[in-house]
Cell envelope biogenesis protein OmpA
Amino acid sequence: MSTNVGRPSAVGSPTRRDIAGGIMSDTLDNIGQGSRSGNPFAPARKSLVKGGLVAIVVAAVATALIAFIADLAGISLVVMGAPLQLSGFAMLTVIFAGLGLILAVILARTVRRPRTVFVRTTIALTVLSLVPDLLVPAGTLTRLLLMFTHLVAAAIVIPTIARRLAD
């Protein structure tokens, strides 16, 4: 920030006028750093979305792979009398992590500290996502497997997206 009240600072950095002057303006380059420009193709939003999508794919593959390995190890994938499909692990990971990415894009446009709000919200939602796994009629190892896949997906997606948000 410039210490010269009312004078522009270096090119590309924020400029400010004193609050008493009634104008306080920041020139920020992208949504990930707090821009409210509304440009859907701003570089940081592309970075947020692109990085988020990569994390979602990695998390989907990871959860399906964990379920595959668990199945090979003899852990039952039967819940409520029906076997869970490996593709179901990946699909639900994509759906819910995708909702998390949408949340991140909205927060980046609307709140002052999007990273903090995103991390707190997604951690709370991850904890809540474990509750059905505790209650589902399935074996203990199956329930632990389900909870583990939630935690793995969250451990991949949350930090990847959070790194791309301003704080």
Q: What stands out?
A: The CA atoms of residues 71 and 165 lie 37 Å apart. The mean pLDDT is 82. Strands lie at 78-79, 82-83. The first helix runs from residue 43 to 72.
